[in-house]
Amino acid sequence: MIKLAIDKPAIDKLIKTSIIVLIIAILPITPIYLSNASSQTIRVIVGIDPNELTLHRNSLRLFGYIASEIPELGAVVMEMPIYVVDNVKKIPYVKYVEIDYEVKIYGEVQWNIEMINATYVWNSYSSYGDAVYGYGATIRVAVVDTGIDYKHKDLQNAVEWCVVSLNNGKTFYRGYSLDKCKDLNGHGTHVAGIIAARLNGFGVAGAAPKTILYAVRVLSASGSGYVSDVAKGIIEATKGPDNQPGTDDDADVISMSLGGPDSQTLYNAVSYAYNYSVTLVAAAGNEGASTPSCPACYSEVIAVGAIDQSYNAPNWSNRKPDVVAPGVDILSTWPKNRYAYASGTSMAC
Q1: Is 135's pLDDT higher than 70?
Q2: What is the pLDDT of residues 196-249, one digit of tens each?
Q3: Helix/strand/coil for 179
Q4: CB 3.0–4.6 Å: which of 50, 100, 166, 325 could bond 348 by disulfide?
């Protein structure tokens, strides 16, 4: 007969632990952030391992309200009391916590198209067919901005697909209902016209007038939005209509005429797109700063500064861009079949 040695203290400890776990499991838990409901809240992005998002989602809810998620980046957009932010930063599985900063816009053939020699390419290389006009339906440019007036007569059949990510993802859509991406500001439509206004004998012409556009609306009617929405827009543009990155319908180019401070989440989104061979272009910024704002600040992004008709850089164009292009008094499309002049590195981008 075999006698087993029984460690009574160890068994007692195991029983007590089991009872505590059971009690925690069956009792309602009051989230930490509700214990002081009057505390001032802040909007942050919590970064964790994308593979552990499901595992840790419920525990994060103890610290605040989850507004949205970007699963591909392991980014969780949350609203939480300021006083719990430092506690969240100390959680072992949390990689970073950052403020969900606000970003904002930078505010037929015209001089800008002539200056970049687009018309020379159209006239001299016609033997290459649609390649000189933007490759027709095979090249897709995602305009990450305030939306696009797809009904504009100079943008007929230019916009093919739509993504909306506003208010930290609380308003989200992806699909072919282009009206959901209508431009209530004007900035995105202006940028879209510079890229792809059609060669149709009237109005203006874009640099690549046969290119297909994806309208990615991440900025509100006021022209502002949040880092989390821009990051989400980049991810969705990279995946394209079939929701799979690395396939034929992905955006070939992502144009971002917007800017703000450095952000780990924004950089992760840029890296995600870059790793799928997407070309990223962004406005350098209009603050007259010594370096480009972000996302133009990242090495994976082509930073575009502005010049005028005399090839001079205006004092408001941020310095040290990768390239420069016309960005002063640029005429382009505007909502409701109108046209407008605008200046900024957005117009150069």
Answers
A1: no
A2: 999 888 899 998 888 999 999 999 999 999 999 999 999 999 999 999 999 999
A3: helix
A4: 325
Taking only the tens place, the pLDDT of each residue in 70-111 is 999 999 999 999 999 999 999 999 999 999 999 988 764 466
User: How far is Cα 280 from Cα 298, in angstroms, rounded to an integer?
Assistant: 10
Cα–Cα distance measured from residue 273 to residue 234, given in angstroms and rounded to the nearest whole number? 7
pLDDT over threshold 90, residue 112: no
State the Cα–Cα distance between residues 158 and 59, nearest whole angstrom: 45
Half-sphere exposure of 60 (CA within 13 A, CB side): 27
Told to judge if 346 belongs to the known catalytic residues of this protein, a careful annotator would answer yes
Set 100, 152, 183, 187: catalytic member: 187
Task: Give the residues across from 69 on adjacent strands.
Answer: 76
Q: What is the DSSP string of 142-161?
A: EEEES---TT-GGGTTTEEE
Q: What is the pTM of this model?
A: 0.83
Span 154-181, average pLDDT: 94
Residues 6+ apart with CB under 8 A from 64: 31, 33, 41, 78, 79, 80, 81, 84
- Contact present, 197 and 206 (Cβ < 8 Å): yes
Ranges for all domains in the chain classified under CATH 3.30.70.80? 32-100
Write down the catalytic residue from 255, 293, 343, 346.
Answer: 346
Asked if the 32-100 domain carries CATH number 3.30.479.30, the reply is: no
Burial of 158 (0-12, 13-18, 19+ CB in 10 A): buried
Q: Is 290 considered catalytic here?
A: no
Catalytic residue among 100, 145, 154, 183, which? 145
Query: Is 229 an annotated catalytic residue?
Result: no
Q: At what angle do helices 264-275 and 227-239 cross, to 10 degrees?
A: 10
Rounded distance between C-alpha atoms, residue 292 and residue 280, angstroms: 14
Both tokens of 185, joined, read 């500001």
According to CATH, what is the number of the domain 103-348? 3.40.50.200
H helices present in the chain, as ranges? 8-26, 53-60, 85-89, 111-115, 118-124, 187-196, 227-239, 264-275, 345-348
